[in-house]
Design goal:
Blueprint: E1 2-6, H1 11-23, H2 27-32, H3 39-51, E2 54-57, H4 63-77, E3 81-85, H5 97-115, E4 118-121, H6 127-131, H7 142-148, E5 151-156, E6 164-172, E7 179-186, E8 191-194
Parallel strand pairs: 1-2, 1-3, 3-4
Antiparallel strand pairs: 5-6, 6-7, 7-8
Helix pairs in contact: 1-3, 4-5, 5-7
């Protein structure tokens, strides 16, 4: 069972993205209702999502609200993973964005440990890291996020490439090993796949 906190996309759009990925039907076709001949694949994808017990929230904005929902679901029937898309969109009480980000990152880390759930937290990349790539993580609030997370994976597009990217495992607290995984982006499904 899993929860997705979609702080950027509305729930129906996030669901369509998942269905498109699982059914291999272009998002545009699903959005436009042009699904003739694909109904079985779409229904199969919807059934798979239901079997996962996956819920998508698009109306939860603060770390306290996220933690409350996670605790509720964990107590009511178990929970395996939590995904947040994306951490910089979590609203906080402080006027300082970095203090809010630090609090959110630490709370996600505590929640994972205390409730024994895997958390996947997406982050934006800051503009400076795109212009001047370095060994730094290049995420907005990278220091706060890096200190709280067990693993950090960065997607990076090689210079001049539109559809190829690499997943760089920059931090791996549990296993220690780091490295690159070659990937490809499919614009039709908004999907990232392993590059052969």
């Amino acid at each position: 069972k899993g929860l997705i906190f979609s702080l950027e996309d509305p729930q129906p759009i996030k669901a369509i993205k998942l269905i498109a990925n699982l059914s291999d039907v272009m998002q545009k076709k699903i959005l436009m209702g042009n699904i003739a001949g694909f109904e079985d694949r779409i229904e199969e994808a919807e059934d798979k999502i239901k079997s996962w017990g996956l819920l998508i929230y698009d109306d939860v904005r603060t770390i306290d609200e996220i933690m409350l929902k996670v605790k509720k679901h964990k107590l009511q029937g178990g929970l395996d993973f939590v995904a947040v898309d994306y951490i910089q969109k979590i609203q906080g009480d402080d006027t300082n964005d970095y203090k809010n980000l630090r609090r959110a990152a630490l709370a996600m880390d505590d929640m994972a440990k205390d409730l024994q759930v895997t958390t996947v937290t997406l982050s934006q990349v800051n503009n400076e890291s795109v212009r001047n790539p370095s060994d730094l993580m290049g995420m907005k609030g990278a220091g706060e996020i890096e200190s709280a997370m067990d693993a950090v994976l960065r997607l990076k597009r090689p210079k001049g490439e539109n559809y190829y990217l690499d997943a760089e495992l920059l931090k791996n607290r549990i296993f220690g090993e780091t490295g690159n995984i070659p990937l490809a982006f499919s614009k039709f499904y908004t999907r990232i796949e392993r590059r052969i």
